[in-house]
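Worked problem 6 (solution included).
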Amino acid sequence: MLASVISACSSLGKLVAGRASHGAVIRGGHEVNDVVTSTLVDMYGKSGCFDYSWKIFKRIPNPSVVEYTSIIVGASKYGLGKLSIELFEEMVERGVKPNDVTFVGVLHGCSHSGLVDEGLGFLNSMLEKHGVEPEAKHYTCVVDMYCRVGRLDEAHKLAKSIHVETPAEGALLWGTLLSASRLHGRVDIAQEASRRLIESNQQVAGAYVTLSNAYASTGEWEIAHGLRSQMKQAGVVKDPGCSWVEIRDSTFVFHAGNLSFERGEDVLRLLRELEGRMKERGYAGGSLGLVFFEVEQEAKEEIVSLHSERLALAFALIVIPKGITIRVMKNLRMCKDCHEAFKAISGIVERDFIVRDVNRFHHFRDGSCSCGDFW
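Solution. The predicted structure is:
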């Protein structure tokens, strides 16, 4: 029962409720239960508290594969690829046999840290050394690994060779390649990836939008607008991006450009003030190629400055006392422009921010990010 409650808190990023559940675990003497401890490790990891995950894990005398896998996955989400490798090697040395999920975790860790050779080594060792048959999800991790270091041709070649069992597996594979091809300006690969997604009726809205952005990033505005029109005619609607922060026992949700919430005017005023101070430090809003519209620079800055994660951050800066780490959750990938802004703001206000986007965690402190700008 407790494990199910903690797991629910983990999925929703509900740190306050998760901590309350942890208290119930301690009071009930359930800390020796493998399932409960692994869900606690997972919950704190997914809530932006990897330090707590680590402390709980280190208190486990003989971690099982479930607990090792939870901490390896957590480390990978924080971009701690070398730590995930060390943990994997430790578990093998202790005679704990890794499973298919363990390999997903360590491969993700390698991917988010640019450790391509190490990742390929793990993939090649799966069956031969550990008796685990590589599946589509493992090869997709390698595709992602290639993509993150700009080796798009190798990623594309591998993607075409992977046999997927379900539409969901195909969506993850081709969605990964589509996002990377847009970021690296490879419209040729983006075309194929989006076609496969649309034909399989998977991530259709995202496929249209990302392909449109890929064309726009190369100056092909007519094609980009045409794709947006096709999307509209087909009745395809993209799920809106949003961000949220948890304060005490309440969750506050923010949508891009929407200031119709309590203290919205205060948030806008703070963002304008911070923007001015960022520019003094060399920040150029809307200049990083993430706003794909034929608009003037001033309009680009306006669009980016009201992204949902910035609204959430400004609200949290106003409401959450100094000295407490601010945690922002986002349902999409954090854009590069906002990433640069968060780094700058962390230095200006001298506070720590942790952002969980759809891919990983970013810990901003003193003008830098834990990802080392590799994400």
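Discussion: Residues 167-183 form the longest helix (17 residues).
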